[in-house]
Amino acid sequence: MALNANLAPGHLQPYVEDMAKGFVNDDAVQEQIDATVADAVARARSKQRKGPGLSHCEECDAPIPEARRKAVPGVRLCVKCQAEHDREEGVFSGYNRRGSKDSQLR
Fold first, then answer.
1. Domain boundaries in the chain?
2. Which tens digit of pLDDT belongs to each residue from 52-102?
3. What whole-number distance in Å separates Cα of residue 99 and Cα of residue 101?
4. What is the pLDDT of residue 20?
5. Which of 2, 21, 93, 96 has its CA 20 to 30 A from that of 38?
6. Rounded CA gap, 31 and 98, in Å?
């Protein structure tokens, strides 16, 4: 298939450059990172309890020290039960928005 003789040399150059960048702007990667961080912050804030905490653990009924109740608003578990709960819940790894192999290896 022959090229149209009416096209000026370099006519397709802007399109080739856009294709090389994948049709994304230069800030796209940073925007993805910012969105991932914002999602993680929102998720953490949604899990925070507010208001007065319990005087005794809702799991094992052990007393929760006043210092812990002051430090952790809305506390409902003693340190031992909270540690077990955190272990069971695991660490949320976030979203792999870029699909890179490095991020999939974690």
1. 53-91
2. 889 999 999 999 999 999 988 899 999 999 999 888 877 555 555 555 555
3. 6
4. 56
5. 21
6. 11
